[in-house]
Amino acid sequence: MIVTIDGPAGAGKTTVAKLLAARLGFRFLDTGAMYRAVALAGLRRGVDWENPGELAELAQAVEIRFDGDRVMLDGQDVTEAIRTNETTVAVRCVADHPQIRQRMVRLQREFAHGQSLVTEGRDQGTLAFPDAECKFFLTASPDERARRRVADLQARGQSIPLADILHQQQRRDEQDRQREVGRLAKAADAIEVVTDGMSQEDVAVRLKQIVIERARAVSNGEAAPISVPQS
Ligand code: DC
Fold first, then answer.
1. What's the pTM value of the predicted model, to 2 decimals?
2. Which of 31, 78, 96, 178 maximizes ligand 1 atoms within 8 Å of its Cβ, making it the mutation to test the pocket?
3. In this model, does residue 139 exceed pLDDT 80?
4. Is 186 helix (H, G, I), strand (E, B) or coil?
5. CA-CA 20 to 30 A from 182: which of 8, 20, 108, 176?
């Protein structure tokens, strides 16, 4: 069974998806980490971000794997390195590039092959797994998302004003919604969950209930089972 969780930055997708996967005994896939790893590879190789040909080559050259919770780039653990501000800034060029997206979606489908999976990102329910049995679109108000981000950064020793975070967030939302391929969008059959005022635990519990109901419907033949598309 495939469960997709899409939504804007700061909606709490990663934590909720991890909690949900652990409770269901499913594998977990953080697709944002894949784009971040490609961005880091580009920074390390000094690619010209304005050169689509170089980015297409990069897309083919990198090897990305998950080793449990760890993100591996060309055999090296980059779990922490992909979270720096430099990588966060560079990731937009990577995420906008159609050939890079194509390769990432292919890797995501390979990862899912034969597995029960909770996968989170921007295009998981729309493009990567359009036939997933259970799709969620997680949102929260801009203020709530920005407050969570400020708290998260504070916990890591960084103090950034709320107004700055709100501004960055608005820019990222626009970029995520406007890219030509794989833009952030709610799938027509996704369940929208607004997480304002809910703890991540509460959200995971709610999602788990829905997944279990859905799995029951699938096994009773009331819903179509998944087929993972071939790339
Ligand atoms: O979720 P995140 O912040 O780690 O994602 C990093 C970047 O990758 C972000 O700019 C959105 C992009 N992304 C994407 O375009 N498609 C996905 N499936 C996942 C992330």
1. 0.91
2. 31
3. yes
4. coil
5. 20
